[in-house]
Amino acid sequence: MTFFNPNQSSDDYQTRRLTRRLRHFLPKSGMLCADLRHPRPSLIHYFAFGSNMNVERLLTDRLAPKGVALEAILPARLEGYRLTFDKRADQFGGAGVANIVRSPGDVVHGTLNAMSDAGLDVLDHYEGVASNMYQRIRIGVITPDGTAIDAIAYQAQPPFSQDAKPAQRYLAHLLAGQVHLPVDYFNQLRCWPTHD
User: Catalytic site residue 127?
Assistant: First the structure.
């Protein structure tokens, strides 16, 4: 198994910055697992393509207060889907929030997060599963080395608004995942038209 050690120096400023922020969330070994092909049996994989690509939002605001640790995080891609912002959310003034829809030939990039299944119970609350805002779906994602991994994602449920656009403060959460995104995909997000 390959490990990324946050104590080693790195030429990549973004990676160093992210690992500094993550240091207090890492497993006791101080290592962030960079190979999810053989995770511990008790871990699940959650694919974040929206605001939870912001690791501070996912960990500091959501998982950590409920005692859930993030064991690993990797870039990943979901093939055969495209990103939309077609679900309106009251907490963002009716602006659109991220969704994935089937679309042959398209790709959605995001983060693959390894955590205990208790993390899904926490995320169910934030994703509005009880009110049918989002529902869990099983997907297959691909890591940078070509490994296919089964994962859970949250897909928005009807009604949809095709003309919805994200709020700038919501889009900022996606842009916070820059270190895990291909440059062209990040630039596409950065140029996305916004609600405000």
Answer: yes
